[in-house]
């Protein structure tokens, strides 16, 4: 596709624009300067932020200039939530989060070469503004009757809790960012999720009101599964980009488990695969869904993007070892811990029989049931079939001295964790 806007539409990355015709022309005439912003309201970027990062990455690859903003000042305030007031974080907490998120964002964009991205922090241009200057120079351009119509603000105003002036003023601060970047860098496009439409539009209005300038907005859809639930949640837990918060193995498994009906949509959004490759994977979903080739491709591509090729190989090895016939001994200690952390299991010791281990980890209800399973050939330890009910666990069976993998059939897997003392 020669038109970047057409490609973004095909990939499902366009929800709304202020003026599609004008934005198409600006992108075609380019290069234009755009910005995407991240507030440090959490200790790490997450699934939703990844959508914005891949969008900015595509636009940079198409030749446009990217400003990546980390909200050192807006993070001190917090974008209003529709249901409750945010708990303010200390300046030190926000500064730490800014540094961490900045380092994460830098890995997705190119900051050297002929078209380098630029990292900016809005604390640099807001911390010196006095309260009087803020009200006179920026507040005068906003009308309260328009501000209260924003969805989150309206929801809070209609609640018993109400909304503080601190959070009410957030949209002015974000609009100020767009005005500053318009003036300083000639930035004429801001991108964000569709639920940020109101805040971003406030920046467009401020540019027009304060400077008589013209700017664009491009928002991305909120990605939801077939049931309407937002992607990026796994049993109530966010999918973080920080490997300490969501391990590369858990990250990889999240993408492997995407439903057939949704995998092509996510391949378009998150990978660089072209039309022909995705069409082929789509055909495989129809012809041989049991192979889950599209999910494997999605998991490998996105895990490599976020965590690197080495972490992806480790996750693939762990997946093959746990759910296939791979060699469990290739797993490093950290990956083994991540991969077995949420498995059912129990405590056992070297010298315990396999029969006792099956009962301890919950694979069998009783010793007699465990013996029958072994006799029927349905039990393995570390992917090696067990044939003798009197066999015991040896020191070598505990991978990295920690865990032996006990399997019944192909699907029932448990962790026999070594008991100390």
UniProtKB/TrEMBL annotation:
Belongs to the class-I aminoacyl-tRNA synthetase family. TyrS type 1 subfamily. GO terms for biological process: tyrosyl-tRNA aminoacylation. Catalyzes the attachment of tyrosine to tRNA(Tyr) in a two-step reaction: tyrosine is first activated by ATP to form Tyr-AMP and then transferred to the acceptor end of tRNA(Tyr). The gene is tyrS. It is found in: Cytoplasm. Its EC number is 6.1.1.1. It holds the Pfam family tRNA-synt_1b. ATP binds at residue 233. NCBIfam families: tyrS. A motif ('KMSKS' region) lies at residues 230-234. Residues 353-414 form the RNA-binding S4 domain. HAMAP family: Tyr_tRNA_synth_type1. GO terms for cellular component: cytosol. InterPro entries: aa-tRNA-synth_Ic (IPR002305), Rossmann-like_a/b/a_fold (IPR014729), S4_RNA-bd (IPR002942), S4_RNA-bd_sf (IPR036986), SYY-like_C (IPR054608), Tyr-tRNA-ligase (IPR002307), Tyr-tRNA-ligase_bac-type (IPR024088), Tyr-tRNA-ligase_bac_1 (IPR024107). One of its GO terms (molecular function) is ATP binding. It catalyses: tRNA(Tyr) + L-tyrosine + ATP = L-tyrosyl-tRNA(Tyr) + AMP + diphosphate + H(+). This is Tyrosine--tRNA ligase. Keywords: Aminoacyl-tRNA synthetase, ATP-binding, Cytoplasm, Ligase, Nucleotide-binding, Protein biosynthesis, RNA-binding. The lineage of its organism: Bacteria, Bacillati, Actinomycetota, Actinomycetes, Micrococcales. Coiled coil: none annotated. Homodimer. L-tyrosine binds at residues 35, 170, 174.
């Amino acid at each position: 596709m020669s038109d970047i806007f057409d490609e973004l539409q095909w990939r499902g990355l366009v929800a709304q624009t202020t003026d599609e015709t004008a934005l198409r022309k600006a992108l075609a005439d380019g290069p234009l300067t755009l910005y995407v912003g991240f507030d440090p309201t959490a200790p790490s970027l997450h699934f939703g932020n990844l959508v914005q990062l891949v969008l900015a990455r595509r636009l940079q690859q198409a030749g446009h200039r990217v400003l990546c903003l980390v909200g050192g000042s807006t993070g001190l305030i917090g974008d209003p939530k529709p249901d409750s007031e945010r708990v303010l974080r200390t300046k030190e907490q926000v500064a730490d989060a800014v540094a961490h998120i900045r380092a994460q964002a830098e890995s997705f964009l190119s900051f050297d070469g002929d078209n380098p991205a630029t990292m900016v922090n809005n604390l640099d241009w807001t911390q010196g503004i006095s309260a009087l200057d803020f009200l006179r120079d920026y507040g005068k351009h906003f009308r309260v009757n328009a501000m209260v119509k924003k969805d989150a603000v309206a929801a809070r105003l209609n609640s018993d809790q109400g909304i503080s002036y601190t959070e009410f003023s957030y949209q002015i601060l974000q609009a100020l960012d767009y005005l500053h970047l318009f003036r300083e860098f000639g930035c004429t496009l801001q991108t964000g999720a569709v639920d940020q439409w109101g805040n971003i539009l406030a920046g467009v209005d401020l540019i027009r009101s304060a400077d008589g300038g013209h700017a664009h907005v491009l928002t991305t859809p909120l990605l939801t599964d077939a049931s309407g639930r937002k992607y990026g949640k796994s049993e109530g837990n966010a999918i973080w980009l920080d490997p300490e918060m969501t391990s590369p193995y858990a990250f990889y498994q999240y993408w492997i488990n995407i439903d057939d009906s949704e995998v092509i949509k996510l391949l378009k959004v998150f990978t660089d695969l072209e039309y022909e490759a995705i069409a082929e994977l789509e055909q495989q979903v129809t012809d041989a869904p049991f192979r889950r080739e599209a999910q494997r491709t999605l998991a490998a591509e996105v895990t490599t993007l976020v965590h690197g090729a080495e972490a992806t190989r480790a996750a693939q090895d762990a997946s093959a070892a746990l759910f296939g016939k791979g060699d469990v001994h290739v797993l490093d200690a950290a990956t083994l811990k991540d991969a077995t952390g949420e498995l059912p299991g129990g405590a056992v010791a070297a010298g315990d029989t396999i029969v006792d281990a099956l009962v301890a980890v919950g694979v069998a209800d009783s010793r007699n049931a465990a013996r029958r399973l072994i006799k029927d050939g349905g039990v393995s330890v570390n992917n090696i079939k067990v044939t003798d009910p009197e066999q015991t666990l040896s020191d070598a069976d505990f991978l990295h001295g920690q865990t032996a993998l006990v399997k019944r059939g192909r699907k029932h897997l448990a962790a026999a964790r070594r008991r100390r003392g």
